[in-house]
Structure formats: structure tokens, C-alpha cells
Amino acid sequence: MSDNSSTVSTKSFYQQSTNKYSGILSWLLTVDHKRIGLMYLVTIGFFFLVGVTFGVLIRLELISPGPTLMDAQTYNSFFTLHGVIMIFLFIIPGLPAIFGNFFLPLQIGARDVAFPRLNLLSYYLYVTGAILALLAVLLPGGAIDTGWTFYIPYSVRSSTNISLPLLAAFVLGFSSILTGLNFITTVHRLRAPGMTFFKMPLFVWSTYATAWIQIIATPIVGITILLVIIERFFGVGIFDPALGGDPILFQHLFWIYSHPAVYIMILPAMGVVSEIIPTFARRTIFGYKAIAMSSLAIAFVGYLVWAHHMFTSGMSDEARWIFSLLTFLVALPSGVKIFNWIATMYKGSIDPKAPFLWVMNFIFLFSIGGLTGLVLGSLATDIHVHDTYFVVAHFHFVMFGGTGTIFFAALHYWFPKMFGRMYNAKLANVSIVFFFVGFMMLYFPKFIMGYMGMPRRYYDYLPQFEPLQQISTVGSWILASTILFIFSYLIYALFKGPKASSNPWGGVTLEWHISSPPTLENFHEIPTITHEPYDFSQLKEMQHDA
Amino acid sequence: MTHSENAVYHVHRDDVGAKMGMWLFLFTEVLLFGGMFLIYAVYRYQFPDQFRVAAMELNTGIGTLNTVILLTSSLTVALSIAAMQKKNKFLSILLLSITILFALMFMVNKYFEWSAKFSHGIYPGSEELLNRPDGQILFYGLYYVMTGLHGLHVIIGVIILIFMLVFIIRNKITFNNYVKLENSGLYWHLVDLIWIFLFPLFYLIQ
Predict the structure, then answer these.
(1) Which residues of chain B make contact with A189, given a CB cutoff of 8 A?
(2) Cis, bond preceding A116 (omega within 30 deg of 0)
(3) Please, where are the H alpha helices in A85-149?
(4) Nearest to residue B30, comparing CAs of A215, A110, A446?
(5) Region A235-254: what's the mean pLDDT?
(6) What ipTM was predicted for this assembly?
């Protein structure tokens, strides 16, 4: 920065701790939002790989009809664990807990989140939940086999370890709520002077909208899960039809959370896209307010559509068409975002580096996922493809093709800022191609199989599905190897990569104004905001300052 | 970094932010109980008669007594905060202790109420209860879960209030830094508020 910087500390947050400890304890007891973000990255990254392993194993089982690798009970446990781990331990916390923690305070010009110690507590709740979820695998009785949706009455009667993963989901929900309320308070209280709501970067907007969903939706699933646990332990009659309860009521309460949770997963990803596109198109975002407001609109309308998961469960016709109509409404704000992103690129000076290519990957895959969602949202077609591979393909395109892809985009975009090192650009570009090929081979055949009538979660299948199942399994090998490859070159870059400058991509949001990696206090002096968030005219001043 | 001169990290104090966080947390608590009120509403609509019959068996006297106790304790905790604002540490300690005492009285009454029900053979999974119609099983299921979860909140509240008592005695909470006490008070009011809804739903609507 300027000449008088010699008086202030220039040590990065890796060299300076918030507590009196050194070594590993200085990390485990830290309240620094950046270190907590990185601890989340390591932990979530680990559980992601565990989830991938289960996914590859169930795919391997399906390479030929009949028993191949494991018995049916193990298969049931594995697809349940795959779902529980990927949803509760990877996709829901992935972007907000890692990148939200690290970059939300940086982007609004704050020194930390509003409640740093609560932030650390959220992390440990996450770890506790993760351990509880996996503990069930080791205990006698066998791992949970209900599917990640825990539907009543099977989840009350199954003799496998259901209560522990349920408790895990409850604890993870608590962690999610605390992170959400931390972010909301941070955005309201700690914005730098001059940063009005409409000068906030769009990643902050979408994380803010996500935080609201986290605190509004999560308590409902919390209590629902708690009731199932109580029902299992004490035989209290709430949902079990044998005691007069209503299993459909459980499904309603479950989806009242779990559908908005889909937007907890995707909104932060959309925020990252809105960061990356302007930076690499060197052009201010098109329709800033429309994108910001569409995040809130998705958060709001997303609440009112839960019963589209239950079109075949038993509901009145009025309820069904109303939920179907509301489901279609979600497509509007999503469309607003897609078109604004495309419009931002129009006449931009596009620099197709790895983060931008990941985003292109996202737009393509997510559009397929989104459009097939309309097939599922329509009453007539849903009856045909309900609970088939079509649904599986749809949500893997939106969740993995959407949020998962953006997890990698964010990692490649912010890697130099987080670690102060740069990865190999060629390897990054190559891996995007392999990721795309593997992804399409793995999931696209599932649309066809689903349309042909292959039900989801089945252990066995008819011979006519064999070729498509095999393509899908081979795709899973390509995809899993690519993921391992990506982690390898990133870890290599962490130690051996060339030093990154403070602004390698020419971004203009606040995190690019400070050193890579940032100092413990982020800013020597809290900046005063005068520019719009994506005003690239400041790039010259920034280069001048540097 | 073992050297203390490197600990440049500032502890940041923001009372408005702290209260905002607390309100958001209370909001999630309301939603948590809201889920159960929703279940109650659905089943009451489904089995209106059986809910009425089952509700007649609850002891309205003990319920009323507990309502009075809890409402008064909400008053004393609010007065304790007011006393702290007026720099009267002793009075604040006294009122907070009375609040804790009320909370314990509430739990003792709850204990007698539940054990009376247990001795009549009405508890989850009991033969007596399982032989009754579905609506009554559901009523008692909800009764035990909702008042039980509320009781758990009372216990957590007592623990928090005891911590506050210690903080006041050790001068960690003072007349110009009492946001912790205020937030604990807010939590206690929520516990009270939920009871105000539970009481008529279980004891009064007959």
C-alpha cells in the first residue's frame, strides 16, 4: 500500500493468531473468520471425498444386474449415506461456511463477522454432527437405510441406527442456524462506511438471502427430526399411523425445510457466478438490482413450493395445481439471473480463465437441470417420472452441476487470495473438460433411463438398462478421478505454486484491494466506499496504488 | 505466535448487534415451537372430540398456578435489568435470584403434575394409553413433547440466569455493560411467551 505502511503489521493471517497459542491450537481455538473458513474447507473437502466414495461404490454395484459387489442391505445404507453426507455435510454448508466465512467480511470491509466466537462454535457443531452421522456406520445394528428423506413409518420401525444420523442432522441444522444469524447481523452491523445495501457485492446479497432461509426454514426440520427421535425412543404417538399419526404430515414438515434448503444450496453459488462473470468480462454486472432482488424473490417463493415433492403422496387436486403453479414461478427469478449474466458478457472483454470456464460449465449444466425441473413441476409429466432416475438426474444436474461446479469455480477464483499462491492454469483447464465429460456420461443417461421407467434407489434392474447403466458407471470413474486430480494440483500449488499477486484477475470488489493472503485484521484502515461494486474504472487507481 | 505483542486482535463490542443476533435466535425458537403448534392444529382439527375428552383430565389448577409463577418471574427478570440500569447491583441480584426461584418452583410443580399422570398409567407407550382412541394418544403425545420441550427450555433458562448471577456478582455485568443480562431476559420472556400459548391449548380449551 502507501509509504507509511512500514508502521503497521504486514504479516498475513497465517503468521498472526487471535490467541496466545502456536501451531495446531492456534487454529483449533481461533476466532478469525478466515482461519475458520479454511478449517471448514479442509473438513468439508474431506467429507465431500467420503461422499464421492460412497457414490462411486453404489455406481459400481449397478454396473451389472443382480448382486455385483455388496448385498442389498449394504447398498441401501450406502445410497442413504451418500445422500446424507452430500446434502448435510457438503452442499448445504459448502459455499456459505467456507467462502461466506472467508469473503463476506472482506467484501463488506469488515474485520471479522459479528460474533467470532459463535462462528467457532458453529464449526464445532458441524464437526460434532459429522462425527455423529458417520458413527452410525461403525455401531452394531448397521448404518441408516431409509434414504436421506427419513420417511415415516419406515424410519420409526427400521432396526438400523436411525437416531444417530437424525441427531446429526439436528446438530448440523443448529450449526447452520448460528452461521445464518451471524451473517445477517454482520451484514446489518459491519458494512464499511459508504457501503449501502445496493453497493454490496452480489455474493454478499445472495449469502444474505441464504442466511435468512437458514434461520427461517431450519427450525422446522429441527423439530420434525427431534419428534422422530422421540417417537423412536419413547413410543410417543406423533407421526406413526399405528398410533393415529399421519405420515403425510411428516412429509409436509420435512419438505417445508428441505425444499427451501435447495435454495440454501444454490443461492450462494449464484452469488459466486455474479462475482466471477463481471471480473472476467471486465464489465459491470448487467441488472445489479434485478439480480440482488431475484435472490430475495427466490428465497421467498422457495418457501411456498414444498409440496411439489409430494404430488403422488396424496393431496387434494386444488393443492396440487397451486403448488405446481408456484413451482413454475421460481423459474422467473432464476431466469432473470441467467439472462442478466449472459447480458453482462455481451460486448465484454472476456478473458476465459479457469474460474470463468467453470462458470460456463455451470450455466450449461444448471440450465439442463433447471429445465428438466419444469418437467417434474408439471402435474401430468411428474406422475410418469416420479421417483425414477429422471429425478435423480435432475437434482444431480442442479446440485452437483450447479452448486458443486461453483464450489470448484469459487475455489479456483479465490485460491490465490486465500493462499497467496497460484495453481497451474493448463491443468485447471484440462480438468474442466474431463469434469464435463465425466459429468455428462454419469448423469445424462439417467434422464433416459428414468424416462424409460427405471425407479430410483433400486438394487437391481432389467437387462435393457444395462448399456446405459454401464455408461453411467464409467462416467463416475472419470468424474471421481478428475475430482482427485483437481485436489492434487491445488494441494501441490499450495506448497510449490508461484506466489500470487494481490489481484491476479483484475477484480474490483474489496477483497482484491488487500494483500494475498490478507492480514489478520483484513484492512489496515476500514475503507470508505464510493464506487459501485463492479465499477472497473477503479482498476487504474488500484494498479497505481500498488 | 506466543508473543503477546502479536495479539493485535481487537475484541469488538456492539450491543445493538448482540441484541439483533438474540432476536434472530428467538425467532428460530418461535419457529421450532411453531412446527409443533402446526402439528397440534392439524390433529386437533382431525380429532376435536377426543382432544376435548383428554384435555378434561389435565389439572387446570396446577396449570394456572404455573402460569402465575412464570408470568411473575418474567416481571422480576425485567425489574432486575431495570435495577442494573439504575446502578443498584444488590437489588438486581435479589430480583434475579427470585426469578431463578420461581423457575425452580415451576419445575417442581411440573414434576408433581407429570408423576400424577404417570401413576395413573398415562405415559407414552403405556398400556392404558394405547387402549384409548387415536386422538387421545396423539393429545398425550403432544402434551408430553410440547410441555417437555418447554420444560427443557426452562432448565436451560435457569442455567443461563445462574451464569448471569455470577457475572453480576463478579462485576462482569455492570450498569454500562449489561447486554448479556438483557439478552438472557429476552430468552426468559420467550420461555414465558411459549407457555402462554401452551397453557390455553392444553388446559383451557375444553
Answers:
(1) 14, 16-17, 20
(2) no
(3) 92-93, 101-107, 116-138
(4) A215
(5) 91
(6) 0.91
Name the residue facing B124 among A9, A223, A234 (closest C-beta).
Answer: A234
Q: What is the DSSP string of B106-162?
A: HHHHHHHHHHHHHHTT-STT-HHHHTS-HHHHHHHHHHHHHHHHHHHHHHHHHHHHH
Three-class DSSP category at B32: helix
CA A282 from centroid of its chain's CA atoms: 27
Strand, helix or coil for residue A258: helix
**Peptide bond connecting B124 to the previous residue in cis, omega within 30 degrees of 0:** no
Residues 6+ apart with CB under 8 A from B160: B184, B187, B188
pLDDT of A4 strictly over 90: no
Q: Which three cell numbers stand for residue A157?
A: 420401525
Mean pLDDT of B29-55: 94
Asked if the model's pLDDT at residue B56 lies above 80, the reply is: yes
Identify whether the C-beta of residue B128 lies closer than 8 Å to the C-beta of residue B121. Answer: yes
One-letter amino acid for residue B65 of the chain = L
Q: Which fold has domain A30-545?
A: Cytochrome C Oxidase; Chain A (1.20.210)
Tell me what pLDDT residue A526 has: 92
Average pLDDT, chain A: 93
CB < 8 Å to B20, chain A: 184-185, 188-189
Q: Answer whether A8 touches B (CB < 8 Å).
A: no
> What SS3 state is found at A253?
helix
- The answer to whether the CB atoms of A112 and B12 lie below 8 A apart is yes
Q: How many residues does chain A have?
A: 546
Among residues A427, A428, A433, which one has the least CA distance to residue A478? A433
* C-alpha to C-alpha distances, A161 to A132, A233, A476, nearest whole angstrom: 11, 12, 28
Task: With CA atoms as reference, report the closest residue to A270 among A99, A384, A107, A29.
Answer: A99
DSSP-based three-state secondary structure for A497: coil
Where on the phi/psi map is residue B122: left (φ > 0), alpha (ψ -120 to 50), or beta? beta
DSSP letters along A276-292, please? HHHHHHTSPPTTHHHHH
Angle at which helices A72-84 and A163-189 cross, to 10°:
10
C-alpha cell at A395: 437434482
Q: Which helix (H) or strand (E) holds A397?
A: helix A389-398
What's the residue count for chain B? 206
Say if A184 is an interface residue toward chain B (CB within 8 Å).
Answer: yes
> Is pLDDT at A9 greater than 70 in this prediction?
no
Contact, A355 vs A486, CB < 8 A?
A: no
Domain ranges (residues) in chain A: 30-545
Q: Which fold has domain B4-204?
A: Four Helix Bundle (Hemerythrin (Met), subunit A) (1.20.120)
State whether residue A455 is helix, strand or coil.
strand
